[in-house]
Specification:
It comes from Chiloscyllium punctatum (Brownbanded bambooshark). One of its GO terms (molecular function) is N-acetylglucosamine 6-O-sulfotransferase activity. It holds the Pfam family Sulfotransfer_1. This protein is α/β, with parallel strands linked by helices. The protein has one domain (about 5-380). The protein is about 45% helix and about 5% strand. It contains 20 helices and seven strands. α13 packs parallel to α19 (about 395-410). The longest helix has 22 residues, at about 295-315. One 2-acetamido-2-deoxy-beta-D-glucopyranose binds next to loops.
């Protein structure tokens, strides 16, 4: 297949880069680390085997290494683990989203459940370490690395992150795990070790929120993960659903994927506020009438198309993905959070808990006026449409033009004039109540 031969070329290319070339600082930093950690074995052992083996074993770059390179960092023997599938009925959930689609908010629905080991954007470190070029073949390579790291994480191998943590953890203890405080599971029970006197938790860049804890011991986190009934994570760094196929087919993982989407007009409006640097061209257009160049439009089109490709694949229910994919619109969650939470939990095969319902109640009914951009504390049914008053119609129009097929698929109505855009009595949502559900 075309994708396969693409992998072949790319994987070979990446392997060659990692092994032979050391000019690229970032890649060599990773390989240096691998060399350091696994001295004689790997970079030699990987010589030619990686391209051949990776391709036969589920097209995976790390698949060949996940058992050799990555796992030998893991003192698995420390934790007895009889059934490789984990506790009976264990479910694995990936909340797949893009930035500004409300994924932190929806992720909390799972973070608040004490039966779930929840990770918040664990690929953040991977993205920072393995910086591939934004375009072309390397995007595929990074997707493969992301995918294989996700696989290890779903299997509760948190040590896999050590390859990407800077500075490198000592004795599996790190002071720097991105947004640790956003994962309840990393801040409670045994994982929350007592802070050392005169420092401890306060030296962490992303400390726990509700209590002070010592530095994160990944061994304890791994143990906690194995003791929880289910594992879930939210990420904005996985783009293509098709890449997850090997995880779905992995017998140790009982995976469900929720793709969370939002009206592309709202997403752009929100990104213009949240990432003013990156979306400067759009802001300039809004403020000064300077029309953005084709490259900006191409980027937008690319984003919309990749969302559509994943959704279309999921909704087409191929055999390998049957009953494992759910498309969820953020707007539907914002309008009926409790109902949608039940829907997502039912889909995931996980029982909703009173604590989840309580969190939803507190965080969607009241509006204590938080200004935090990443706040999940909002009057959801009121907030989610604010952008309609802020986004100039001409920008909405361009988004509609560029993203029309995606908007049609997701059921977002196009508007023809500025009045309708700003008229919040005119709903932009078409009924898509039974998206993706069998
Ligand atoms: C390179 O890989 C081949 C197998 O493809 C193996 O026979 C050979 O020993 C490897 N070379 C080194 C130096 O490990
Ligand atoms: C981390 O936790 C493990 C398991 O309890 C323990 O054996 C180890 O000593 C801890 N590491 C450090 C550096 O405290
Ligand atoms: C939240 O927004 C809804 C819809 O606008 C409104 O009916 C409700 O009164 C608001 N709740 C609070 C506490 O502001
Ligand atoms: C706003 O939309 C509603 C529902 O479509 C419509 O009845 C109303 O006339 C619109 N108001 C304005 C000012 O256009
Ligand atoms: C398509 C493919 O190669 N699938 C394989 C993925 O890996 C599992 C376990 O190693 C195999 O059983 C599949 O045949």
């Amino acid at each position: 297949m075309r994708v396969r031969s693409k992998y072949a070329i790319i994987l070979f290319f990446v392997a060659a880069l990692v092994i032979i070339e050391k000019e690229n600082n970032i890649i060599s930093r990773v390989s240096d680390k691998l060399t350091l950690k696994f001295p004689p074995v790997d970079l030699v052992g990987l010589n030619s085997s990686i391209s051949a083996r990776a391709l036969t074993e589920n097209d995976s770059l790390l698949a060949g290494t996940s058992s050799s390179v990555l796992n030998c960092a893991s003192p698995r023997a420390a934790v007895k683990w009889e059934d490789s599938r984990g506790p009976l009925g264990r479910r694995h959930l990936i909340l797949m989203a893009t930035t500004r689609t409300g994924s932190s908010f929806v992720g909390e629905f799972f973070n608040q459940n004490s039966d779930i080991f929840y990770l918040f954007e664990p690929l953040w470190h991977v993205e920072r370490t393995v910086t591939f070029e934004p375009k072309g073949a390397n995007a595929v390579a990074s997707s493969i690395v992301y995918r294989d790291v996700v696989q290890q994480l779903l299997l509760c191998d948190l040590y896999v992150l050590e390859n990407f943590l800077l500075p490198m953890p000592e004795r599996h203890v790190t002071a720097f795990l991105f947004r640790r405080g956003s994962s309840r599971s990393l801040c409670e029970g045994a994982v929350c070790t007592p802070p050392r006197r005169g420092g401890g938790g306060s030296s962490e860049r992303f400390p726990c929120r509700l209590r002070r804890c010592g530095l994160l011991n990944l061994t304890l986190a791994t143990q906690a993960c194995r003791q929880k009934q289910h594992v879930a994570m939210k990420t904005v760094r996985l783009r293509q659903l098709e890449f997850l196929r090997p995880l779905v087919e992995d017998l140790r993982i009982d995976l469900r994927v929720i793709q969370l989407v939002r009206d592309p007009r709202a997403v752009l409006a929100s990104r213009m506020v949240a990432f003013p640097g990156k979306y400067e061209a759009w802001k300039k257009w809004a403020d000064q009438g300077v029309v953005p160049d084709d490259e900006e439009l191409a980027k937008l089109r690319g984003n919309c198309e990749s969302l559509r490709a994943s959704a279309q694949l999921g909704l087409s229910q191929p055999a390998w993905l049957k009953d494992r994919f759910l498309l969820m619109r953020y707007e539907d969650v914002a309008l009926e959070p409790v109902k949608r939470a039940h829907e997502m939990y039912r889909f995931a095969g996980i029982s909703i808990t009173p604590e989840v319902k309580k969190w939803i109640h507190i965080n969607t009914q009241s509006s204590p006026g938080s200004d935090n951009l990443y706040s999940t504390h909002k009057n959801s049914s009121e907030q989610f449409e604010k952008w309609r008053l802020a986004l100039p119609f001409k920008i909405a129009e361009v988004v509609q033009k560029v993203c029309e097929p995606t908007m049609k698929l997701f059921g977002y109505k196009l508007v023809r004039d500025a009045e309708t855009l700003a008229n919040r009595s005119a709903s932009l949502l078409e009924d898509r109540r039974h998206f993706g559900m069998a």
